[in-house]
């Protein structure tokens, strides 16, 4: 295990010589963080290692494995979920910091026999190949419908740039999103 | 990632007191404030940041964006980048800021990232992010790997023999052009710091990036009222059309009267070790005719002190053209 930082005497402030942090508990279990949040309409209380990300809490502890782990650094968008109605990268959230939050995952937007219009459009337009990025693409696309973006395909591409697709299904993803936006605006 | 204790700050004083237990607010801080988390979690996963305590400040009432009595605006430190960019006050009166924020990252990241966090975001230098490489910013005295290494993305202004890491923020370039003030509260009280004085160039201490001390909490940013008769814009040049850091960017605020430039502020991104205000360019623009010859002189002045590395010599001319193009765009003399 790498050595933890220790304060360097050369950078310690002369006016605060006695600053000291209390030592951390010896065992990780001792410092588990307990928190409650709502996921897809159900309240959950978990007690987890504080290092657990929202992504890992969803997948490993609530077994909601629809949300995917790609880069784990906020670059690929595979882990996109909604927190309090906004799309975010769940790999960059500490789960315990989500105390009181309302989370929606891919499992919460539609059912096999009652697809969200965007899920149906992805099927109709063939908006995926391997499918690994699809949950993240869909969670971004669902949020996009209510975001202040322009009408063009380029506007959609810009708004979807945080979701990478290694198979390169971008063209059909844009087509699927635009078909739903067209239906939405014609029905308003 | 090392183990840490996570707690939610009850109020500002609670956060400040917790932060003050660390020996520094700079690289190596044992206590970190958590707001959007987009930088902190990324760097904790890489073991570049290894705090023992993480204080969640995201629920403190610091997220308001509101007009001030003097005609300016007050931007709360935990306001989200998305909310800032789309706020009517910002969109209508400080276009350069809205455009700069929207040019950075992705929607998901902008939904998380905050104003204070954006100000404190760290360099994307690959050696800073790789704990197996020497890096004077991460490990003072270990050396700079970028000077003899991959330095295409690195800075050409404000560098030193210790560090050439570029500051990646778009938002802060706009804040420089708008002459923003950063408001900080710490154990010794409140301070208002002009943004250009907030950031430090690396010199011999690249681990020290700004004037914050342990316990200092950024509470808000203020912008002065827009200068009458001015327009502003942000232009970002990069390897991809979206979701990429700047190779060169420019944020300008400029206004002309009777055929002469009456007010000019120029700030650069992608090329500086800090968000770069160019007073040299502003001096060339002031009282001159708003034409391409003037803009080119301003661009030459801005980059006169540039020190390119082995792979980023192209940034000198790219940055100049970025400045000229942005000035033409805003003054519509093209």
What value does the Rg of chain B take, in angstroms? 19 Å
Question: How many DSSP E strands of chain A?
Answer: 5
Radius of gyration of chain A: 21 Å
Strand order of the largest sheet of chain B: 4-5-8-6-7
Q: In what order do the strands lie side by side in the largest sheet of chain A?
A: 2-1-5-3-4
Give the name of the CATH superfamily of the largest domain in chain A.
Answer: Beta-grasp domain
Protein described:
With 188 residues, chain A is of the alpha+beta class. Chain A is 28% helix and 13% strand. Chain A folds into 2 domains: 77 residues, Ubiquitin-like (UB roll), CATH 3.10.20.30; 70 residues, [2Fe-2S]-binding domain (DNA polymerase, domain 1, Orthogonal Bundle), CATH 1.10.150.120. Chain A has a 5-stranded mixed beta sheet, with helices on both faces. The longest helix of chain A has 17 residues. Chain A is elongated and about 60 Å long. In chain B, a hairpin with a 2-residue loop joins strand 10 and strand 11. Chain B starts with a strand and ends with a helix. Among the domains of chain B are: 51 residues, no CATH class; 101 residues, Enolase-like, domain 1, CATH 3.30.390. The model of chain B has no long low-confidence stretch (mean pLDDT 97). With 334 residues, chain B is α+β, with helices and mostly antiparallel strands. Classes of the chains: A alpha+beta (188), B alpha+beta (334). Chains A and B meet through strand 4, helix 3 and helix 4 of A and strand 1, helix 2, strand 3 and helix 6 of B.
